[in-house]
């Protein structure tokens, strides 16, 4: 019987450590499982699972304020309402500024001329201002120019002048897309030798506006409300040529004998040159809310370019001679 080689026996504790070390690669535990070497098994993706962040609960007053902010923004998005609201509130504040300031001075114990939105709203209701909660909150925001949550009541005498200026700039920017395209005064010459200029239309950064009434001379006296009489808002730097384009578009008149006149006489002196702007003709214009009112006249001669009978009148003449 062969003899077995004798060797030293390993301690039981060492044997256990080896068994555990050998078993490490076979571990297929869940992500986050603590393994023998003291590290954490991160799973297949190699990343720890992140817990969901808990939502911060809003207080009742914060919810009310958030609701008012959203409602005020919706009112501000209604362009016509917002425009009328600013005009009315500006007039009311300027008219009642002395009483309003005196009332808030009684609230202002520190004498800093600063009040909170809540104090302002309470004061407006005490003054008998008939606005709902959303409207009076919008008014407070308009008076808070730096969005600090506080109002300097000594500035109330100025009304909503700052808000009016911002609103007018926004309206002018929007209306600029609807105003007649103005041809530039200077442009590059056509490389092919034609007389047309090549350039992109431009927009005046500080436009003046004209409420232009265009009356068809033929029906000016007989029919005051003839459908060919037009009214349109234009910029003072609009050219007569662009106005002719507008007449063509609105009336369907495509005569090359279409002209615009300064008065109803239709004589040569009254004809307005197509390349001239309204401003060059003496119509300076004014602000969008208070445009200059101008009345011009137009007329045209009928041209027969697609009638075969009228174009062949020499055949009719021959028939008459026979």
TrEMBL record:
Q: Does the keyword rRNA processing apply?
A: no
Query: According to the UniProt record, where is the region Disordered?
Result: 1-60
Q: Which PROSITE patterns match?
A: EF_HAND_1 (PS00018), EF_HAND_2 (PS50222)
UniProt keyword annotations, A-Z: Calcium
The record's listing under InterPro entries reads: EF-hand-dom_pair, EF_Hand_1_Ca_BS, EF_hand_dom
Q: Does the keyword Methyltransferase apply?
A: no
Span of domain EF-hand: 95-130, 131-166
One GO molecular function term?
A: calcium ion binding
Output compositional bias ranges, type Basic residues. 1-15, 46-58
Q: What is this protein called?
A: EF-hand domain-containing protein
């Amino acid at each position: 019987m062969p003899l077995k080689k004798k060797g030293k026996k390993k301690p039981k504790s060492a044997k256990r450590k080896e068994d555990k070390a050998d078993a490490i690669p076979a571990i297929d535990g869940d992500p986050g499982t603590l393994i023998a070497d003291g590290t954490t098994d991160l799973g297949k993706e190699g990343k720890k699972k992140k817990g969901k962040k808990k939502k911060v609960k809003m207080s009742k007053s914060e919810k009310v304020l958030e609701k008012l902010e959203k409602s005020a923004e919706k009112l501000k998005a209604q362009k016509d309402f917002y425009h009328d609201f600013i005009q009315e509130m500006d007039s009311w504040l300027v008219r009642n500024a002395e009483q309003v300031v005196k009332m808030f001075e009684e609230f202002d114990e520190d004498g800093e001329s600063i009040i909170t939105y809540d104090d302002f709203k309470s004061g407006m209701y005490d003054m008998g201002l008939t606005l709902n909660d959303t409207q009076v909150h919008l008014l407070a925001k308009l008076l808070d120019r730096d969005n600090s949550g506080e109002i300097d009541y000594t500035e109330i005498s100025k009304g909503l002048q700052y808000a009016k200026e911002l609103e007018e700039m926004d309206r002018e920017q929007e209306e600029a897309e609807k105003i007649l395209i103005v041809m530039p005064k200077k442009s590059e010459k056509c490389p092919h030798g034609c007389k047309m200029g090549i350039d992109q239309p431009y927009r005046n950064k500080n436009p003046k506006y004209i409420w232009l009434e265009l009356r068809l001379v033929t029906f000016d006296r007989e029919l005051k409300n003839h459908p060919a009489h037009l009214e349109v808002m234009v910029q003072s730097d609009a050219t007569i040529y662009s106005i002719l384009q507008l007449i063509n578009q609105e009336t369907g008149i495509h005569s090359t004998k279409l002209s615009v006149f300064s008065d109803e006489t239709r004589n040569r002196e009254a004809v307005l040159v197509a390349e001239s702007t309204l401003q060059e003709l003496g119509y300076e214009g004014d602000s969008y809310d208070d445009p200059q009112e101008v009345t011009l006249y137009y007329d045209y001669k009928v041209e027969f370019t697609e009638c075969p009978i009228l174009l062949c009148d020499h055949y009719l003449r021959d028939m008459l001679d026979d």
